[in-house]
Amino acid sequence: MRLSRFFIPILKENPKEAEIVSHRLMLRAGMIRQQSQGIYSWLPLGKKVLDKVNNIIREEQNRAGAIELSMPTLQSAELWQESGRYDAYGKEMLRIKDRQDRPMLYGPTNEEMITDIFRSSVKSYKDLPLNLYHIQLKFRDEIRPRFGTMRSREFMMKDAYSFDLTREGAEHSYNKMFTAYLRTFDRLGLRAIPMRADTGPIGGNLSHEFIILADTGESEVFCHKDFVNFDIPAENTDFDSVDGLKGIFDKWTSLYAATSEMHDESAFNAIPEGERLSARGIEVGHIFYFGTKYSEPMGAKVQGPDGKEHFVHMGSYGIGPTRLVPAIIEASHDENGIIWPESVAPFDVVVINMKAGDEACDGTCELIYAALTKAGKDVLYDDTDDRAGTKFATADLIGVPYQIIAGPRAVANGEVEVKDRKTGARETMTIEAAINRFVA
Ligand code: ATP
Ligand code: MG
């Protein structure tokens, strides 16, 4: 992509409304634009990152055996009257009437709709287990939308829903998602700590929030300090192995101390003083086993091996991609801007032409741009006539992991500079070596 033909509306000034660094950097780097309170457009640079985040989420959901579908944003109120949540949901739900005066709503979540899809077609235990997910916009009329897309009113969610014949089956489905989440956040360059969460009236201990440590987070974290360092399940993990996944899960519960919601002080105090961690964090995912809470009132049942009908055991599993993008920035930035992990960077590398219009610089940059693009790299080529200083500032701000800098003096020697955005290290090398550095 040539920067001269792309659309990155960089802000020179620090936006006054931004209270936290990720919000400030997303606005300054031209990633998002607020359209009305808590409702955002994702501009091209932001959209590229969001797509990469969604693709990693999708790959790990698929690996764990979940199946993607797409459900609408607008839902009929009737479904929610069946579950009893239409009245219970309160003001966070945006309620709309269509031209026939029928009550509709902009979905804040999809348990009811997925249960309806399930009950309309699945009748036998032989079709279980089943886990369906989508990545879709949600709307919650939050009292205090803030911090940009970190807590917005319209936001994106990956929400998966599992269906099983028995509680034991549902626990295995839960452990699959638990394992998939550990892998997902790791691939996004994040350490997300699974914290046991309150299950409310349903009871049991099967709910976890995944929290990234950050001073600006809205959640409190109390746990054993070893919680922050852990092994990530391998790509070839056998998701069908009930004992294998239970092993991964049990490792966690044995480390478990307490969570913000449970305020389990005694568990926290039982940890030796030097081993306690008390910090703030951002909730980026939430998984939940809720048994027959929706299947009973909505009549979602299957015939079991005993020939009788059974209400299915369900779980739901959410991740917020539009919250994850700022969370990644909170975890990875410096005073000059964003530092993207390679897995979600909007571009793999940026080629900076320090003297556009200079024949040797133009020729060198075009050569590198063509070679890397041909090799399948996503390259941003800064071919604008901005001053070199402006170009460096832009490249640092938007956080592309590597910069190839072509200035007249180096180019005259057949050389360019390669800069690592994260470490700041710069290395002069031949044009060929620079290309091989990314192609090989
Ligand atoms: P919170 O406590 O932050 O309001 P929640 O418990 O309401 O979150 P869930 O209903 O569990 O959230 O939704 C699943 C995921 O969706 C969350 O872990 C988060 O990543 C994301 N999410 C929820 N609300 C928002 C929001 N207002 N803006 C952006 N992302 C959100
Ligand atoms: Mg909420």
Comma- or semicolon-separated keywords:
440 residues; alpha+beta; BirA Bifunctional Protein, domain 2; Rossmann fold; nine-stranded mixed sheet; five-stranded mixed sheet; 14 helices; binds adenosine-5'-triphosphate; binds magnesium ion
Walk me through this protein's architecture.
The protein is an alpha+beta fold and 440 residues long. 33% of the residues lie in helices and 28% in strands. The strands form six sheets. Strands 3, 7, 8, 9, 10, 11, 12, 13 and 16 form a nine-stranded mixed β-sheet that branches. Strands 20-19-21-22-23 form a five-stranded mixed β-sheet, with helices on both faces. The longest helix is centred in the middle third of the chain and has 21 residues, at 167-187. The radius of gyration is 25 Å and the shape is globular. The chain starts with 20 loop residues before the first helix and ends with a helix. The mean pLDDT is 94. It binds adenosine-5'-triphosphate and magnesium ion. Adenosine-5'-triphosphate binds at residues 140, 142, 151-152, 155, 157, 283-286, 318-320, 322-323.
At the fold tier of CATH, the topology name of the largest domain is BirA Bifunctional Protein, domain 2
Bound molecules: adenosine-5'-triphosphate, magnesium ion
Q: What is the share of helical residues?
A: 25-40%
**CATH homologous superfamily title of the largest domain:** Bira Bifunctional Protein, Domain 2
Report mean pLDDT, rounded to a whole number: 94
- How many distinct helices? 14
* Strand portion: 25-35%
The tally of beta strands, per DSSP, is 23
Which runs of at least 5 residues are low in confidence (pLDDT < 50)?
Answer: none
Largest sheet, in brief, is: 9 strands, mixed
Distance between the termini: 21 Å
Would you state the CATH class of the largest domain?
A: Alpha Beta
- Cα radius of gyration in angstroms: 25 Å
CATH arch. level architecture of the largest domain = 2-Layer Sandwich
Whole-number total of structural domains? 2
Q: What's the overall geometry?
A: globular
Task: Supply the helix-strand structural class.
Answer: alpha+beta
